[in-house]
Design a protein that fits this description.
The complex is a heterodimer of chains A (152) and B (712). With 152 residues, chain A is an alpha+beta fold. Chain A is 34% helix and 16% strand. Chain A has five helices and five strands, in the order ββαβββαααα. The mean pLDDT of chain A is 97. Chain B has 712 residues and is α+β, with helices and mostly antiparallel strands. Chain B has four domains: 33 residues, no CATH class; 168 residues, Aldehyde Oxidoreductase, domain 4 (2-Layer Sandwich), CATH 3.30.365.10; 148 residues, Aldehyde Oxidoreductase, domain 4 (2-Layer Sandwich); 309 residues, Aldehyde Oxidoreductase, domain 4, CATH 3.30.365. Chain B has a seven-stranded mixed β-sheet. A five-stranded mixed β-sheet of chain B has the order 3-2-4-5-6. Classes of the chains: A alpha+beta (152), B alpha+beta (712). At the A-B interface, helix 1, helix 2, helix 3, helix 4 and helix 5 of A face helix 4, helix 6 and helix 15 of B. Bound molecules: FE2/S2 (inorganic) cluster (2 copies). One FE2/S2 (inorganic) cluster sits at the interface of chains A and B. One FE2/S2 (inorganic) cluster binds next to loops of chain A.
């Protein structure tokens, strides 16, 4: 066990955990940030996506010891009032079904649009292809990312 | 025509006011009285066994509606309140929805399954809303000293039609709670619906997109322990010995306990438990048949010839029909086991205390979870509370109570509050699969290409009756025999979204297409011809609605431009399941020598659509689900163990693979008949028939991706 100091959503946190603990479980079990979801644990589904210095990463496969000073953003910190353009688009298009995959989908889309604010539809699909939605909400996810790209 | 409902007076309670001075109307969605018992009562209702749902109107006009059924993405938490709000004429922006606690001590159906919640509760919900509206009108009329008949309502306001005076529901709530309950309430004409049938956003959107803790796995409590269970890795084995010495010494581990066929690793965090789990040494020994998919393939074919068949339906004389046939068509279809794999793995929180039990978790059947826990622990059900969280998908997996009762059992052993967490690997290896099934179809045509004989024999592994003997084309064929054979296996199965029909429909609709081709008929005309025959000269009982099926077929043909398209190959499919009808046309184009699924048109008759946005989601989601599993889904076994363990080798459909989908709904004014499942079954058949059109090859086995046409 060791103390890890983390910068998450602009705040300082500390967690006393083993070095190999994935960021996902530090967030969920130790810091009470449960918006980031466990889906597969092996970097296949994207439900656990968070931002590390603005880049989308899979927190289930990222040991806490690898984070160092990087700034972590989770769904809870994507915007203060839930009004990030991607979140607004998600509501407008009425995307969620069960909703379990959606934090990961939103975080993937937000990081992608930040780097590529005016993507082609092919670019949207090849990025979002990495995130599984078992409910099959892909059509609306695609539509919402497209809509968000007009608002960013 | 408007409908008048009589509420059962004996169910009324004395009216009393809320401490906050509002109106509370308790009603029971699950009573045997289809009108739904309605009563005005004072809070709290959770402790009152007679009511499992209520609506309340507070002084500020906020309308709170308790939605009792588990929400897993079917959008019931939005559609139930919409129905109440419609009859109440509420201002939707002031409607709040709460998930009710389990209260099935006297009533059934506080569950999610069978696409049945809206059909079941439709009239009860309307009646409750209309009753509240009536009370508010009475209160306004009394205040103004006018006759209630001269008042109307709109968007949360009562209006006196002659003077134009207005009072909000919030202003009237306290007085409304003192009014006499009406003996009759008038329900709205369909044409006056303002909310029902429109697209309304999911009431939980904001919580979901901001990552609020809604799901079972998000439940945490101070002092709670975490546990994972190592279950036997292969079906047909049991624990021989356990050595947990090393695991127990690992950081954060509280205990390792063995019960039934489980080794539970209990600790202070998910990750510590997960790590320690790998250090537990468990030996297993044989405890039943150890089966592999290779054995199943032989077994299923063999049982079609030799298995002990149960006759499910028999009309006319099939033997004679086949003997005298001018043409006989035969085909066999097979599907593998499937995992449900909802995004959120199984989990449940349990705290067994000396004075009672607390359960919290995502379940489609809270009543069953509680009953089974009571039986297991030998305690009365009243001592158990169950809080239903949102479910991160279900697809039938969460109809079972195993993952709730094991948490309760563990909590009772370790005498501590504990959340049991399944990994995705546990889910995928843990059973309750969609059963593997093989079907043999045979059809006899007479010299004029009429279908005169039809046989279906199905063999399933733990599938029960793997046929739906009364479904189309039963009733349309004079000589018909439907039989099923079951193989009992240690591999556990369970209901998987649209049980049995999720695969049967593909096989049947492919075969119907094959018969049409053999008879030289257009697939749509062939189906319509059979329905015409079922109508004019039915054979045996007809348990589907011919007109509804005919209507979806015709509309799907029209919307898809059936038979008029160049450059794409179209395939047709139609299926009746639960109580609804869905016809689909799939379009396939050849791309680099392989079929590419481009588009699916879906026409659904689910009766009255409640929420157009949610309904479209259900249809599109079901098509994506149906296509994904038909194309890629497969659980195979080697020596009793599932070979697929996670999403890396259990392939789910992804965004790149989805076709365009166009959805249509038949507007026929009948009461809702359910939509959670019915759009899934037809998809496989529509795809397979379009692929046949494009390639001349019939698909016989799922997953399609392993079929010749998809190989390079
Ligand atoms: S949980 Fe991390 S990718 Fe699936
Ligand atoms: S909304 Fe259920 S998994 Fe995506």
């Amino acid at each position: 066990m060791a103390i890890f100091k983390l910068q998450i959503n602009g705040k300082a946190y500390e967690a006393d955990v083993a070095a190999d603990t994935p960021l996902l479980w530090v967030l969920r079990d130790h810091l009470g940030l449960t918006g980031t979801k466990y889906g597969c644990g092996i970097a296949q589904c994207g439900a656990c996506t968070v931002h590390l210095n603005g880049t989308a990463v899979r927190s289930c496969s990222l040991p806490v010891s690898a984070i160092k000073n990087a700034a972590v953003t989770t769904i809870e910190g994507l915007s203060e009032k839930g009004d990030h353009p991607v979140q607004l688009a998600w509501d407008e298009v009425d995307v969620p079904q069960c909703g379990y995959c959606q934090a990961g989908q939103i975080m993937t889309a937000a990081a992608f649009l930040k780097k590529n604010p005016h993507p082609t539809s092919e670019e949207i699909v090849s990025t979002m292809n990495g995130n599984i939605c078992r409910c099959g909400a892909y059509h609306r996810i695609r539509e919402a990312v497209t809509l968000a790209s007009t608002k960013i | 025509m408007s409908t008048t409902n009589t509420t059962s007076r004996r169910n009324f309670l004395k009216i009393s006011t809320l401490t906050s001075g509002g109106l509370i109307l308790g009603f029971n969605l699950f009573s045997s009285d289809t009108k739904g018992a309605v009563a005005v009562t004072s809070a709290p209702l959770e402790g009152n066994g007679a009511f499992n749902s209520y609506l309340s109107i507070a002084g500020d006009g906020t309308v709170t509606i308790f939605s009792p059924n588990p929400e897993l993405g079917q959008n019931i938490k939005t559609s139930f309140p919409m129905i109440v709000a419609e009859e109440l004429d509420a201002d939707w922006t002031k409607v709040k929805v709460e998930q009710a606690l389990l209260d099935t001590s006297k009533y059934d159906r506080q569950l999610t399954g069978g696409s049945g919640a809206v059909p079941h509760s439709w009239m009860r919900l309307r009646n409750a809303g209309a009753t509240a509206r009536n009370l508010l009108i009475q209160a306004a009329a009394a205040r103004w000293g006018v006759r209630p008949e001269t008042c109307t309502t709109d968007n949360g306001v009562v209006i006196h039609t002659t003077t134009g005076n207005k009072l909000t529901y919030g202003e009237l709530a306290a007085e409304a709670s003192k009014m006499a309950l009406p003996a009759d309430v008038k329900l709205k004409d369909r044409k006056d619906f303002k909310l029902i049938g429109t697209a309304v956003k999911n009431v939980e959107n904001n919580n979901i997109i901001t990552g609020k803790p809604l799901f079972g796995l998000d439940f945490y409590r101070e002092g709670m322990l975490f546990a994972m269970l190592q279950r036997p890795p292969a079906f047909g084995t049991k624990i021989k010995s356990v050595d947990a010495t090393a695991a127990k010494a690992m950081p954060g581990i509280i205990d390792v306990v063995t019960f039934k066929n489980n080794v539970a690793i209990v600790g202070k965090s998910t990750w510590e438990v997960n790590k320690a789990r790998k250090a537990v040494k468990i030996e297993y020994e044989k405890d039943g048949a150890i089966e592999s998919t290779a054995d199943h393939d032989k077994l299923l074919s063999g049982l079609l010839d030799t298995g002990k068949a149960t006759v499910q339906r028999k009309d006319g004389d099939v033997d004679a029909a086949f003997k005298n046939a001018a043409k006989v068509i035969k085909a066999e279809f097979q599907c593998p086991f499937l995992s449900h794999s909802p995004m959120e793995p199984m989990n449940f929180f349990a705290h067994v205390r000396p004075d009672g039990v607390e359960l919290v978790g995502p379940t489609q059947t809270p009543g069953r979870a509680r009953t089974d826990t009571a039986k297991l622990l030998g305690i009365p059900e009243e001592k158990i509370t169950l809080q239903i969280t949102r479910l991160g998908g279900g697809f039938g997996r969460r109809l079972k109570s195993d993952y709730a009762t094991e948490a309760a059992e563990l909590s009772s052993i370790i005498k501590a509050p504990v959340k049991v967490i399944w990994t995705k690997e546990d889910d995928m290896q843990g059973g309750s699969y969609r059963p593997a099934v093989r079907y043999r179809f045979e059809a006899a045509l007479d010299a004029s290409e009429n279908l005169v004989g039809y046989k279906l024999k199905g063999v399933g592994i733990n599938a029960g009756n793997c046929t739906r003997e009364d479904n189309f084309p039963s009733g349309a064929v004079d000589n018909l025999l439907i039989e099923s054979v079951e193989h009992i296996s240690p591999i556990t199965t369970g209901a998987w979204r649209a049980p049995i029909t999720n695969f049967l429909a593909f096989a049947e609709q492919s075969f119907i297409d094959e018969i049409a081709a053999a008879a030289g008929k257009d697939p749509v005309q062939f189906r319509l011809g059979l329905l015409a025959k079922a109508k004019s000269k039915p054979t045996g009982a007809i348990k589907y609605n011919i007109d509804r099926m005919e209507a979806v077929i015709k509309m799907a043909a029209e919307k898809s431009g059936w038979g008029t398209k160049k450059n794409v190959s179209q395939g047709f499919s139609v299926y009746f399941s639960h109580q609804s009808y869905v016809a689909q046309v799939c379009e396939v184009a050849m791309e680099s020598g392989k079929p590419a699924i481009k588009k699916v048109y879906a026409v659904s008759d689910c009766g009255q659509v409640i929420n157009l946005s949610g309904a479209r989601q259900q249809v599109i989601g079901a098509i994506v689900d149906g296509m994904g599993h038909a194309m890629f889904g497969k659980i195979s076994f080697k020596d009793g163990a599932s070979e697929q363990k996670n999403y890396n080798n259990y392939r789910l459909i992804r965004m790149k693979e989805i076709p365009e989908v166009e959805t249509y709904f038949v507007d026929n004014g009948i009461d809702p008949t359910g939509l959670g499942e019915p759009a899934l079954p037809p998809t496989g058949g529509a795809i397979a028939n379009a692929i046949f059109k494009a390639t001349g090859k019939r698909l016989r086995k799922q997953p399609f991706i392993e079929e010749e046409v998809f190989k390079a």
